Amino acid sequence: MLNIGIVSYAHPHVLKYVPAFLSHPNVEIAKICGIGANIEIAKRDAEKIGCKFFDTLEEKFFEDLDAIYIASEPLRHTEIVKMASEYGVHVLCDKPIAVNMKEADEIIETARKGGIKFMVPFNTRWQPALRKAKELIQGDVQYIYAVKFGMNPINIRNFDTSWFFDREMAGFGGFGDIGMHMLDAIRFLVESDAIRVYTRIDKDDYFGNAIIEFKNGALVHLISGWTNPFGKAPWMNATLEVLTDDMAILINKPLYEPVSDFCVFKERAEFSDLGRVGIPSNVNEFVNSILEDRDPIIKGEDAKASLEITIAGYISSKKGREVKLPL
Fold this sequence. Notes:
Elements: E1 2-7, H1 14-22, E2 27-33, H2 39-49, E3 52-54, H3 59-62, E4 67-70, H4 77-86, E5 90-93, H5 101-114, E6 118-119, H6 128-137, E7 143-151, H7 167-170, H8 174-190, E8 194-201, E9 207-214, E10 219-228, E11 236-243, E12 248-252, E13 262-265, E14 269-272, H9 279-291, H10 300-319, E15 323-324
Parallel strand pairs: 1-2, 1-4, 2-3, 4-5, 5-6, 7-10
Antiparallel strand pairs: 7-11, 8-9, 8-15, 9-10, 11-12, 12-13, 13-14
Helix pairs in contact: 4-5, 5-10, 6-8, 8-10
């Protein structure tokens, strides 16, 4: 049985991860630390679960823990990972890995030196449709049109999301926040590194457009941001159109829409609904990597690569020209 600690209730993803950890047969939530936003909600959950609550991050919090899940504001990630590493505590850290490349490198190196597992949970990786597309494509991607829209965090009720609009705390606005998941999915399919980016992001950083070229010749058009209005079902939706030499694949992720989530166009169109999976897949992979003493499938380097493309996109938008990678 693994003893898990929850660090912060700042990110609303924590509301999905806590139930996922609670339902896992090999996990017990032993402690909750409420640093950052929504400390009262963190305290309430600790009382409900019956675990210890801390309002500051201190040595006693890490004692007897096997791993932590970090749902803090991104600016705090580096400090928290360094503390966890000192005590040999494994880390599942919500995206983005960091707010800049220097801190991303520090986190990866800290985890390596400390001998701890480090994983950033990109939910899209586990979608059956995406994994089926990867199996069919085998890296042979010519062009991807990717769209992912989410609800503005300000519309999340009874939860303090004000830090999302503080660029120092959050690192990015809508384009980076929503696009990061899609960038990981794109890299998963393309199996190559980005070499140049050209981006336009609106002045309020609610949404943006990016053209991304990869080393193997793949070209990607990404559109992402906080555009879905409050009350829209689903509150987040994603579409991927993938072209190869001999086929086209359409992946739809919106719930409650009358569209199959997986379509292959070759000699004829074939439609499938492969189903959807969510947060528990990330929790399962993280827990299994610890129990099996292996690297998690999604590594810190993967999160760093998506971060680098994102940062290059913001630089491109500010300067009005393409930006070459690596930075």
